[in-house]
Amino acid sequence: MKRLEGRTAVITGAAGGIGSATARLFCEHGARVALVDLPESPLGEVAAALRAETPDADILEIACDLGQEVGATQAIEATLAHFGTLDVLVNNAGVRAYGPLADAEAHSWQAILSVNLLAYAFLAREALPALRRSGRGSIINVSSTHAINPRAGMGQYDAAKAGVLSMTRTLAFEEAAHGVRVNAVCPGLTLTPFHVRRAMREGRTEDDLRGERVDHNLQRRWADAREVAWPILWLAGDEASFVTASTLMVDGGTRT
Q: What pTM, to 2 d.p., does this model score?
């Protein structure tokens, strides 16, 4: 069964680990997919790989900066111009900042909030007219387990991700009457290219990460990005038709 047959989806941060895994799964399940990421990202490589793996997939690449409000407008307008409809929005783009809040400066806050929170709001705003027309619109906001379990040294990122959860519930309350469901997914420790590159700088390989036992969660391992993509797929389709204003923890049972 193809869960998203005949539906159109926008996926932001599509060149990254969770974004590309979600795009791959959506294509496998019949969705038309708009992939959104920065011009300097490996977006073209991801799109080429998806087309090779799923030759009948209808894929649109949109290179834009979601850190700017106009980027949200560009992404949704390009999607509608190409596909004509929109049924699913996956807000997944994100950036990081490191350091204690005592040292956080305005430019760093602006960079984090513009991509990790405001872009989600602007994309939802631009997408909602089409999602309402769909009759089965679904927004999935990718937050983080650290929205609920924050840690020292990444307070800006964690605060933005907590804001995503609050916005998700508010938007769900506002859009229920229009037939649009809004939910959030909170991934835990997920093996993405970002973490692989970081490990390589420390002299470790991807296989090292996959094989190590971690204390971060009850399953004591890293998640594969596809394990996060499956719940996103579920929330996008009819199997989750009675699910809205929810936060789904996809974290292997994070230890608090």
A: 0.94
